[in-house]
Amino acid sequence: MNIKAYYDYIFTDRKRYEPVCVIDVWMQRRDYLVAAGSTVAIGGLSGCLGDENDEEAVVRFGLTAVEGDVDTREQWQPLFEYIENETGVTIEVNESSDYSAILQAFRNDQIDVSGTPHTIGIIGERMEVTDVVGLRRAFGTDREFAFITTHPDDDITDIAELAGSEIVFADPLSTPGAMFPLHMLSEGGLDVGDAPDGDPVDFEADYADHAIAREQLINRESVKAAGTGSFSVVEHVPEDQLPDRFVENDPAADSAGSAEPALDLLAVSQPIPRPPILSRREWESEWRESVEQALLDAPSEAFISEEAEFPLWFDGVVTGGIEEYEPVADVMTELGIDLDAYESMS
Known about the structure:
Blueprint: H1 3-10, H2 23-29, H3 52-56, E1 58-64, H4 72-87, E2 90-96, H5 99-107, E3 113-115, H6 118-126, E4 130-137, E5 143-144, E6 146-150, E7 166-169, H7 175-187, E8 204-207, H8 210-219, E9 223-229, H9 230-233, H10 244-249, E10 264-268, E11 272-273, E12 276-280, H11 288-297, E13 316-319, H12 326-334, H13 339-344
Helix pairs in contact: 1-5, 4-11, 7-12
């Protein structure tokens, strides 16, 4: 789904959910309800709760299965159990196939909390439907970076040399894997045209994911550069090519140069705040403050499931507000994504 289609979808009135009750299932078996199809139904709790006090103690947590066969509910279960033990609430899990549905659920009073990408936090703030609880932390930092890497055999030393070439990126909605690399290409003198929503002018753009982008740079001679999150390629970059701002802010710098083949680092973004945990702005519950504080106070072990095949990628939540994401909003605007237009549609 391209950028335009993604945001158009956010503001449609289609109904994504049908009401179901999962409270008894969760309380008795700590299991999750998965509805047939691509989304788990979110919605009305009336008629399935014992009394009003029970209803007040339910926190509806929105999840999105964004990585193929990854069991998202299994990933988050240790954190949910920690929150329940710390606060006395019951977590109701509501899973959807995409983040646009998560934003719709916030708008329609169907979820209270969710972990989302930067874009949903920015749009949700402008629509006055979400608040930032905090920034996610991984590898000891709440910042990440975007890299543009090239193959040493091509001896590319300047972004201008990529004119007319094929460049592969992660998903077009990815902040470190598309938006910031495109911004760096633009700053380097290339005309990015309508990318990531449309075609660039000075180069050919392909989109995949971070790992595939890296592998295509390594294995396809026609690909001359990859725009990805630093985590995908830092092991292939020689340590002496890393700038101080990366070394000082990202512990992953310790793994530089540990993998073959070597890749050259052409450009590095400024530090990017990691994605947020959001809560619904109109969530008026006596449990809200304690749940949000539990998320911020949770120790790293509360985020890790020893049984999960793919554990959560982050191990903490740190205090921060929407102002942290101003650099991301600025880049989106510079790439032609009209945030004000979407705000007016809310």
